[in-house]
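Second attempt. The first submission of Heme sensor protein HssS had a stray character pasted in from the spreadsheet, which I only caught after the job came back as garbage. Lesson logged: always re-copy from the clean sequence file. Corrected sequence (349 aa) follows.
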Amino acid sequence: MRKKLFPQLWMYFVAITFLLMVVVLSVFVCLLFIVNHFKLLAPERENHLFPFYFIIFLSLVIGAVLSIFVGKRILQPIGNLRQAMNKVAKGDFTLQLGEEQQVEDVAELYHDFNVMVNELNSIETLRNDFVSTVSHEFKTPLATIKGYVQLLQNNSLAEEERQSYLERMLEGTQQLTHLTDNILKLSKLENQGIGLDFQSFRLDEQIREVILFLQPKWEQLDLTLDLTLPRTNYYGNEEFLYQVWLNLMDNAIKYSQKNSSIRVQLINETQGQLIIISDEGIGMTEKVADRIFDKFYQSDTSRKTSGNGLGLALAKQIIELHHGTIKVNSIPGQGSSFKLFLPNDLENS
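This time the job returned cleanly.
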């Protein structure tokens, strides 16, 4: 059964049209009665056409008043909606219409319009975040793969080393394959609230894989790695958490001084897992540390080409989706220490 569109608008239009006809008819009947009773249109009377002109003038006034009323109640809201839709068509997704309208159907129409604009804004944000995040997150795996390709050009490599490098390159390409889907899911989580898929995996082995994957970078700086990674099974999203360790370790290497050290600790606590990643790099001020997890925030403009300020924001969001926390302690010139806590009870939550 076809649903009636805007019933109240039709009621207003019909009622106003009917009222217009009744009022005009009543005025004409009254005027004709007066004219006939007093014989005002008799040719022998002076100004005998005045009542006729008066009837025309009165009809025009009544029609104008009712037209203005119809315009303000029905036509003007539709005109406002048309103008708003033109702005949305040009890319303005922040526009909102006031929903406090006297006609209920107009209020519902404005409400549906606002919902539509919010959805379009969410989709636009999703698209922008996806493009920006992909451009940032692809750089680390691509740089690592490039490093192994350069190592493979050494003809003196042993076959065992060559196979090892090829396997790590394969892992990097697989990581790139999964990365696009993961970032898209993460953006949807932020904008639409879709849930994560959790499973049990070896957390210590995952962190080792990331460190091994970044080996060309930390070997180039002659960094010393101090690892404390006891066997740890964890229930969470394996693919997303991989991005956390990749971002944090990549930052620790990037901002470290040559011949310095990086310390990675995995501590099994009663309520969850504590992960600490510390470096001896350039550090940051308290002001920078307060904003380091904000999207697109970059404190060091000289390093702008190495990222767009999304890595740590992405890491924080993933940790929070695991109901965990991430904090940073840093001293300029001495290094930074990132502390993450992941609770153990996700399987029952």
